[in-house]
Amino acid sequence: MKRVHNFCAGPCTLPVSVLEELAEELPDFGNSGMSLIEMSHRAEAYDAVHHETLGLLRELSEVPDDFSIQLIQGGATLQFAMVPMNLLDDGRRAAYVVGGSWGKKALADGGKVGDAYAAWSGADDGFTRMPAEEELTLEPGTRYLHITSNETIGGIRLPEFYRTDVPMVGDMSSDYLSRPIPWDRFDVVYGGVQKNLGPAGMAVVFVRTSLLESIAETVPAYLSYRTHHDQDSLANTPPMFTIWATNKVLHWMKASGGVAAMQKRAEQRSSKVYRTIDEADGFYRSPVDAACRSHTNIVFRLADEGLEATFISEAEANQFENLKGHRSVGGMRASIYNGLPDESVDALVDFMSDFARRHG
Ligand SMILES: Cc1ncc(COP(=O)(O)O)c(C=O)c1O
């Protein structure tokens, strides 16, 4: 079997053991004579996987009982619309921290559904940091403050969650399950699963149950958090393969020490790469404010930007895939999610040091 060092920003590298288990169990699930993805989503065997997945999410993320855990298709992108549809029914306003491309998109959809404004924007300083709490402008009548805890494209992380008077809504697509969540400060947390958790196909959405009652009847059924609250009576056919694979990743995470271990690993592995950037005598540079450097998406440039194409082509010749930065920002980006093996990070820093020696 050939495995490359895959630093894709999403879909992500999954643990090989998870892929192998899936492959082995795929044709005949639990001696049923059919694949899990061929059976009814109302079958007992699938139901057990579904509920175990929800249980593992609750356990690993320490989700309190007054939060509903919902598995919703449409990815994190659909949540950009669902959040304001469900929370802004009473004509109140929504504040957004715009720390990069994803915050910008969330605000744009928020503004289409309701009255949304930027509590802060990093556009003026080229999206290089997240704001301190004192920098946020929260206007009267604000229902929630939307944050993107980690801007996947810019590689910018919110180092500390805010303690604002209004509840927060968090897009945590690229760092949930790799850092603890202070649930008391949130009404909703969501994220697409294809980074730290599994293959693409849905978002996991954590919703404070007390807000379900006030969701307007005019919200279409599939788009209402009230519909997805009861995971015993599924709203429609769920993305069964994604949920099954996510279940296996969650088991793998639990056996590997859970979120605390994932957090420590993310800190250690990202520091290794940042150290390589900082110690290369100006050969590499990180465009992100040091306090806000992402632990999962490491964006870096070469001082000589003309050499970046050579970096990428040499990297590819050495089995490193998906190191090219997002097309909107350029440069390089190494995405280091939970499932990426340590060997890939070690190989990357060796390659970077060697490249700097040869071309510096
Ligand atoms: C922070 C963030 N939010 C939202 C999205 C969009 O997610 P999806 O593709 O699941 O809709 C992404 C995807 O990369 C992301 O990184």
Notes on the protein architecture:
The chain folds into 2 domains: 17-255, Type I PLP-dependent aspartate aminotransferase-like (Major domain) (Aspartate Aminotransferase, domain 2, 3-Layer(aba) Sandwich), CATH 3.40.640.10; 258-359, Aspartate Aminotransferase, domain 1 (Alpha-Beta Complex), CATH 3.90.1150. It has helices spanning 16-25, 44-60, 75-87, 101-113, 225-229, 240-255, 258-278, 308-317, 342-359, and strands at 5-6, 67-72, 93-98, 115-121, 142-148, 150-151, 156-157, 168-171, 186-192, 203-208, 284-285, 297-302, 320-321, 332-335. The chain is α/β, with parallel strands linked by helices. A hairpin with a 4-residue loop joins strand 6 and strand 7. The mean pLDDT is 97. The protein has 9 helices and 14 strands. The protein has a 7-stranded mixed sheet with strand order 2-10-9-8-5-3-4, with helices on both faces.
